[in-house]
Write a structure and sequence with these properties.
Number of helices: 7
Distance between the termini: 69 Å
Order of helices and strands: EHHEHHHHH
Helix content: 55-70%
Length: about 150
């Protein structure tokens, strides 16, 4: 019986006289009291999942995950302190993970727009003033004036 759990495993047992009379006993067991098998109650679901792991669609999905998802997790662990969550409760952990993802996305957006570790670009000052004017327009005239 695996790890003493009887509620999660179903046990099958053959009687000793049946096993001893079987011509294939030497391939199954050396016990004279019969053979015992334990099977998890969800083993059919496990087998279905294992069969899905052999399909091309699963292999394609795993290859995509290697390229797109796993590097982001590695970056979060290495550079953003996400080896362990600081907060408790699911909703707080979710917020912490979303904040990290937002930071990663913001970092990529700034890199794509040309904001790296370079001096402050002159165009950024202009963009700041345009955004400030848009904000004033929104605050004082309403949402319909914005384009």
């Amino acid at each position: 019986m695996p790890s003493g759990c009887t509620d999660q495993f179903k046990q099958y047992r053959a009687k000793g006289r049946v096993c001893n009379a079987c011509p294939l006993k030497s391939q199954c067991t050396t016990s004279n009291t019969g053979r015992k098998l334990s099977r998890h109650v969800a083993e059919e679901a496990f087998e279905r999942v294992r069969a899905f792991h052999q399909t091309d669609a699963y292999k394609k999905a795993m290859n995509k995950r290697k390229v797109w998802v796993e590097p982001l997790f590695a970056e979060a662990k290495a550079w953003h302190g996400m080896r362990r969550y600081r907060l408790r409760l699911l909703w707080r952990v979710t917020i912490e993970a979303l904040m990290c993802a937002a930071g990663q996305n913001l970092k990529r957006l700034l890199k794509k727009r040309g904001w790296g570790r370079r001096p402050f670009p002159a165009e950024a000052l202009y963009a700041f003033f345009v955004a400030l004017c848009d904000l004033r327009l929104y605050l004082f005239t309403g949402f319909s004036q914005l384009g």
